[in-house]
């Protein structure tokens, strides 16, 4: 009986029926991307997987299967002892590997023999990945997006957070990308997810939205750090209803100083990020900004970056990305504190459906 016709295999549409989703691939495979909510219980770790693959190619499949069986059995036993012994009789886990083959089949067989309702995902992660890519082509067209446009420092991200607090549907691209969307955007000592994991996060968010209500999003370029927004989604965002967020320069400077507090606390990292602007602005100007960092002249630096870098860049490219920005309505904010943003969010919030 093949892996795909086995009675203990189920399709992707039954994901919601299980108490747990267990990814038995190696830690590196899991880190690259995984089904939302899955836990990683590898039946072969990264080194073991390489070892078995090498043995399979260089010696024989039979020798590889013997060693693989020993390693897999040992690892399954350890997972039972450390993760599963407390599970009740009625526990139902869904188990998957890369293609729904031997790795997930082994774990499913053992857990099933114990008496749990274990099932294997047909086609494994490969089928899930195909579904994500297909849905990212079709889901955006079913949604209406309201896009917060405006230059850097106008508190678009904070307003997006306030809209979420007010009960609105929000797609936070920067949060999913773990990046603040500008050359200074990557927070110190953090890394962005891989492109696959970013797309899975988008898929998970998009499929949870109600098409009858607007989805709020912040204007972004096609790239957020090193990640790119999928084409179908980005084109749909470009056609969204635009709201032009405006705020006084002093309020924007205050907001930027608050938002980049982590960089202010790490001047060395701040100057390293500023160095990336040399090609655009030249050594002399960037060295002047870096001198402000060294001197702790944060307000002077924030004003210089807004007026000499961010605003000109926005006028050159940011305004033209979104097709309906000229007809968008203005949202004028006198202040960018939490109370002001919460009041604006309540004003913008759609009436209950």
Please tell me about this protein's structure.
- The chain is built from 16 helices and 12 strands.
- It has helices at residues 27-32, 46-58, 61-84, 102-114, 124-138, 156-165, 173-177, 195-206, 231-238, 249-259, 261-264, 267-275, 278-281, 283-295, 298-321, 338-348, and strands at residues 9-10, 20-23, 39-40, 93-96, 119-121, 145-149, 169-171, 215-218, 223-224, 227-228, 241-246, 329-332.
- The protein folds into 2 domains: 9-133, 3-Layer(aba) Sandwich (Oxidized Rhodanese, domain 1); 144-348, Rossmann fold (3-Layer(aba) Sandwich), CATH 3.40.50.
- The termini are far apart.
- Helices cover 52% and strands 12% of the residues.
Give the CATH class of the largest domain: Alpha Beta
Widest β-sheet, arrangement of strands? 1-5-4-2-3
Q: How much β-strand is present in the residues?
A: 5-15%
The oligomeric state is single chain
Named at the architecture level, the CATH assignment of the largest domain is 3-Layer(aba) Sandwich
Tell me the CATH topology of the largest domain: Rossmann fold
Radius of gyration: 25 Å
Main structural class: alpha/beta
Largest sheet: 5 strands, parallel
Instruction: Report the total helices.
Output: 16
Give start-end ranges of low-pLDDT stretches. Answer: 1-5
Q: What's the helix-strand series? A: EEHEHHEHEHEHEHHEEEHEHHHHHHEH
The global form is: elongated
Alpha carbon gap, first and last residue: 50 Å
């Amino acid at each position: 009986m093949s892996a795909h016709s086995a009675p203990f295999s189920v399709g992707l549409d039954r994901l919601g029926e299980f108490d747990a989703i267990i990814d038995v691939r190696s830690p590196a495979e899991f880190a690259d991307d995984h089904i939302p909510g899955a836990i990683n219980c590898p039946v072969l770790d990264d080194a073991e997987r390489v070892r078995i693959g090498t043995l399979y190619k260089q010696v024989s499949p039979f020798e590889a299967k013997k060693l693989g069986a020993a390693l897999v059995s040992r690892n399954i036993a350890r997972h039972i002892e450390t993760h599963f012994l407390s599970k009740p009789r009625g526990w139902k886990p869904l188990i998957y590997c890369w293609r729904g083959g031997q790795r997930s089949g082994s774990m499913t067989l053992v857990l099933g023999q114990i008496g749990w309702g274990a099932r294997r995902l047909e086609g494994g992660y490969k089928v899930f990945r195909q579904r994500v890519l297909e849905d990212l082509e079709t889901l955006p067209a079913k949604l209406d997006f309201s896009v917060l446009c405006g230059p850097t420092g106008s508190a678009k991200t904070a307003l997006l957070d306030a809209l979420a607090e007010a009960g609105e549907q929000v797609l936070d691209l920067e949060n999913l990308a773990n990046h603040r969307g500008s050359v200074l955007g990557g927070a110190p000592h953090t890394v962005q997810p891989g492109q696959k994991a970013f797309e899975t996060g988008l898929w998970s968010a998009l499929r949870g939205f109600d098409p009858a209500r607007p989805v709020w999003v912040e204007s972004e370029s096609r790239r957020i750090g090193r990640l790119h927004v999928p084409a179908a989604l980005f084109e749909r965002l470009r056609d969204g209803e635009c709201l032009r967020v405006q705020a006084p320069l002093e309020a924007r400077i205050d907001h930027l100083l608050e938002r980049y507090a982590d960089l202010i606390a790490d001047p060395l990292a701040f100057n390293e990020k500023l160095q990336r602007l040399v090609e655009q602005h030249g050594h002399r100007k960037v060295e002047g900004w870096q001198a402000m960092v060294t001197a702790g002249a944060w307000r002077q630096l924030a004003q210089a970056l807004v007026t000499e870098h961010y605003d000109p860049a926005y006028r050159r490219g940011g305004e033209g990305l979104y097709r309906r920005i000229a007809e968008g309505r203005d949202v004028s904010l006198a202040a960018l504190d939490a109370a002001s943003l919460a009041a604006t969010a309540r004003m913008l919030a759609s009436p209950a459906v």
